[in-house]
Amino acid sequence: MRYISTRGEAPALNFEQAMLTGLAPDGGLYVPETLPHFSREELAAMAGQPYSEIAFRVMKPFVGGEIEDDTLRRIIDDTYATFKHEAVVPLKQLSHDHWLLELFHGPTLAFKDVALQLLGRLLDHFLAERGEKGVIMGATSGDTGSAAIEGCRHCDHLDIFILHPYQRVSEVQRRQMTTVLADNVHNIAIEGNFDDAQAIVKASFADQAFLDGTRLIAVNSINWARIMAQIVYYIAAGVALGAPYREVSFTVPSANFGNLYAGYSAAQMGLPVKQLVIATNANDILHRTLADNDFSKRELLATLAPSMDIVVSSNFERLLFDAYARDSDAVRDLLARFQQQPAALAEAPLERLRARFASHRVDDDTILEVIREAYQRTGELLDPHTATGYRAAEVAGAGDGTPMITLATAHPAKFEDAVVKAGFEGAALPDSMSDLLSREERYEVLPAEVSAVQAFVARTRR
Ligand SMILES: *Cc1c(COP(=O)(O)O)cnc(C)c1O
């Protein structure tokens, strides 16, 4: 399998290279040159199989023979053994035709574990084969850094450094990162805000001399292996509810669009999908683009669903690449204009997107209303991200008889603020985390200076 850049000016890579590279050198994102396709018989044969078996069958063609089957199976088995539910991603019925796909049974209680638990293990495998070490650097505003840390804590060939703004993340969020006491896990509290932390990470990727030749690796949502791991649960949920013999629909709380892009890919690969519904919070660039052809940046809003607070949706570029019939010149041109000023899509690509996706924006007041309403109607306490999906699914037509699968992207205990604001006492952390507030913590407080952070990374990596 070969991977090509959406901007058309970087060399094609194999799976391992695409994974280790992250962003293409031309600024684009890697996508498979051609997607694998599953026949009806192949899909039907996945129904009733364990999640890790479906994962193996779905991911094998993407890996393209670069990992031996036995090794790939072992990596997948290890990955999903970290989930606390035997079904890994259980489906829960909400009404006669509306289901929740619970993606939050991993170590940090949010869907990013599904991909990051795998990514860490895959990176470790390739680095071991090469006899190399790698360093991961990332910045977090609080709610996503822990998934990267949990995904790397067992990796012998990786050190991970996650920067968070000092005293600006909640205690639960901080502790989910800082109580991981593995030798290769390094938390840095930056005396500054999230943008300062992110700027330091960017500067470090731009000039890696401080690492003396060790590879710096990004695990953000543009890494293809994350999309690949996410395609699996669309197919698993689809065949569990009757595909390929009937269609299914999905609604996805969306921000950087990595999650729903995986759903779109699953449909391209043969899963019969009726509707794909984008749910956004008030940071609604995806919804505005589809509804009004308003592809423009707006100021960042802090919402009750903070993991969806974005200005630009990075994986949307992959979708644009297909909408523009894989014309990388057109994509490059559109994105260059978008960086400068409000942009608009050409007519044909916009029509293609509108034919495939519905979208809906859900503001904070509605999130609270939905949390209350869903609880009354189904007994399910939704987290604020999932609440955006629940509402968008209803607007888009859950109730039309086709199974609508809303992706539950986080456990409500992880975002207790919203749950309390909605009038509930709170949500209990699962047993495995009940002692989080008394565990030992470790982190380094550093000034918001590139040189201080780079000196610390160079000194403490193994
Ligand atoms: C990251 C995240 C999202 C958004 O997913 P994208 O792939 O960026 O669209 C939604 N909900 C939760 C809880 C998240 O952590």
UniProtKB/TrEMBL annotation:
Residue span(s) of domain Tryptophan synthase beta chain-like PALP: 91-330
Q: The Threonine synthase N-terminal domain covers which part of the protein?
A: 2-80
- By its UniProt entry, which PROSITE patterns does this protein fall under? DEHYDRATASE_SER_THR
| Keyword check for Amino-acid biosynthesis | yes
Pathway, per Swiss-Prot/TrEMBL? Amino-acid biosynthesis; L-threonine biosynthesis; L-threonine from L-aspartate: step 5/5
Q: Which cofactor does it need?
A: pyridoxal 5'-phosphate
Residues that span the membrane, as ranges = none
Q: Name one GO molecular function term.
A: threonine synthase activity
Keyword rRNA processing (UniProt):
no
The family database entries (NCBIfam families) matched by this protein are listed as: thrC
Family, similarity comment? Belongs to the threonine synthase family.
Q: What is this protein called?
A: Threonine synthase
The organism of origin for this protein: Kushneria aurantia
Name of the encoding gene: thrC
